[in-house]
Hints:
By secondary structure, this protein is of the alpha+beta class. The chain has two domains: 27 residues; 466 residues, CATH 1.10.630.10. It is 52% helix and 8% strand. It has 19 helices and nine strands. Helix 6 crosses helix 7 and helix 14 crosses helix 19. The chain starts with a helix and ends with a strand. Keywords: Endoplasmic reticulum, Heme, Iron, Membrane, Metal-binding, Microsome, Monooxygenase, Oxidoreductase, Transmembrane, Transmembrane helix. One of its GO terms (cellular component) is endoplasmic reticulum membrane. Its cofactor is heme. It is a peripheral membrane protein.
Amino acid sequence: MNITFGALYFIIAILTILFLFFKRRFSYWKNRGVPYIEPTIPHGNLKDVGKSKHFVEAMDEIYYACKKKSPFAGSYFSISPVAVITDLDLIKTVLIRDFHFFRDRSNYCNEEDDPLSGTLFFVQGERWTTLRKKLSPAFTSGKMKFMYPTLLNVCDRLVEHLSEVIQVENDIEVKDVLGRYTTDVIGECAFGIECNSLRNPKAEFRKFGAKVFNAPKYSKLVKEFLGQCPEIGRFFRMKLFSDDVIEFFLGTITETIEFREKNNVHRNDFIDLLIQMKNDKNPDAPHLTMLEIVAQVFGFFLAAFETSSSAMSFSLYELAVNPDLQEKARQEVNEVLNKHNGEMTYDTIMDMNYVGLVMTESIRKYPVLMAVTRKAVEDYKVPGTDKIIEKGTGVVIPIYSIHHDPEIYPNPDVFDPERFRQEEVGRRHPMAFLGFGDGPRNCIGMRFGVMQSRLGLAKLLKNFRVKLSPKMSVPLKLDPNALVLSSLGGLYLVLEKI
């Protein structure tokens, strides 16, 4: 009996301590006079996210409840206090003017035990500054033109593959097919390897890339903890990626580099540019180590793995829902092709202005990365207020909420490419569109993503008419479990050969 009462007292004591801990932790924003939504133990403001609620719904609740009260709102990702920026002027200040206060992302990185985590996206501090300077020359428009013939070759294979598939079944899950297209593009441009995932959906590159997104090593809760307490993760030598993912990409990239150097093989692709940096004899030139190259090639692969395929998929979905816009885009493709003697060159696709508007409006309505994250590297006094964002506090910019704010974009659920005509863009705040982020830490591969997506969309419009599948709903239902914005149950469209 004494043991039973002793155990009961112990449990009550533990629960009391936990309750007091959460109560104190969840008083953080209240004590600082920052507007917030009451959190729930133990998930904070992310209760049911990934189950019955999508992440963007949780952000919308905070954004609309607090945007009129303060330039930023208090929120809790699990037990971590996070500042959600709701004011566009403050967003510009965080991303650009006072960037040095918010240089880092709230991501975990452990290069020593997990070399793949040393990508430009994850690294922090001076390490990021150095890497960004080294890599920027590899992403100029001139370098993109060098890679364009490779993209065109893969895109021709995409059209050929779809032309064969629709003879058997024209109701296509386009997200999967376009995901395999971008896998093959990145495989050839970043690795110099024909992945052939268009023909073989079970190709290794597709399998391991999908594993990173669909079967992550840690839960969202653990990743949030690692982002807030990276020293603990590094102390226990926790890796961001699974051992088989690390082994596959580390081995494949290293073998490719060694083969090229040994056999003096040169190609106009991303890995070739990085090898040149590694071997440049000029002491003033940006140099990369072998492991830095491995990490950046892997990061380039991941960055383009889901983003471009999603942007194209959502564009096709909206053009299927709006056939008049589809015909307008197709007409432009044909007119610009005639202007360029029927050749789909880099300059041809960049001359397709309306196709570009379609892509941008698609990214506005369906931003693949739903939020931009930063972390205060020192205490920051928010301009025009007496509030401090303390050192180490996570910062979130809710892209989806901003892109769907009716005060910024009237009738935000309507797909309207004309929103991005130059004169319309000039009337809006420069931070009203954040599809690629902004400031020094924006998406370094933006030019490549735009090139890849425009080419794919132009080729598909030229060769196929797209209609809505009976399997699809209007509006789309979002998958609450997806790491990037995705349609629940896939994205099916009917393709008819032109």
